[in-house]
Amino acid sequence: MKQNIVKTRLKNNQPVLGVLSNSIDPTIAELCGFSGLDFYMIDGEHSPVTTAQVQDIVRACEVSGITPLARVRSNDPKLILQFLDAGVMGLMMPGIKTPAEVEALVQAVKYPPTGVRGLGLVRAADYLQGAMNQGEYVQFANEQTLILPQIEDIEAVQNIDAILLVDGVDGFVIGPRDLAMSMGYYDGPGHDDVRKTIAGVVDKIRKAGLIVGTTAATGDQAKALIDRGVLLCLNSVAGLLKSAAGDFMKGRQI
């Protein structure tokens, strides 16, 4: 188990920037690490990635110094366990709507006494727990894992006050596109009603002393969000490539 640099930065009120990636190629993770990004989030929801492939992607993250996180496709404790055992250091869970679902996520991610995660002699624990005894490892792992449910449904917004009372959560990531669709805006989140709803959720999360994360398409957007107290900014590998390619292709314009 490695120190979770991203969680340490967030606890120190320092912003982190990274990408959500649906690539199964560890080389992409390695490139993102050597580019200086803070985290690489494996997309286990909108990609064909398998738990066997996750382990190699995590190894590439470790080599290049980027923190491996993952979005897991469902709140299934056995699936969550496989991602964590492979070395993923934090989870973003989509589709959260109720306090009970958040509690189930915490239970799956954390070892006892906080949760019910099963202990195996796997790579996340250096196979034989390295220099730590079992008690030390369990405590360290519980401290280092990062839990970030996604707020991307209007039902979650309606339940936000109760959701914020669940122990063990580090913060929440707002998904503007799905949230907008759940509010009946199928053309995107660029509506005043959506913006106002997101702003209200951001304020409540911050007042609860928790981390706020959301998507940022550009560096300027990330800076504006950070100025508003959003500490975790998320782009995509495809988004970064598209914007960089667009800038590069300006060179051939006459």
From TrEMBL:
Residues 21-230 form the HpcH/HpaI aldolase/citrate lyase domain. Pfam families: HpcH_HpaI. One of its GO terms (molecular function) is metal ion binding. Transmembrane segments: none annotated. Keywords: Lyase, Metal-binding. InterPro entries: Aldolase/citrate-lyase_domain (IPR005000), HpcH-HpaI_aldolase (IPR050251), Pyrv/PenolPyrv_kinase-like_dom (IPR015813), Pyrv_kinase-like_dom_sf (IPR040442). GO terms for cellular component: cytoplasm. Belongs to the HpcH/HpaI aldolase family. This is Host specificity protein. It comes from Spirosoma montaniterrae.
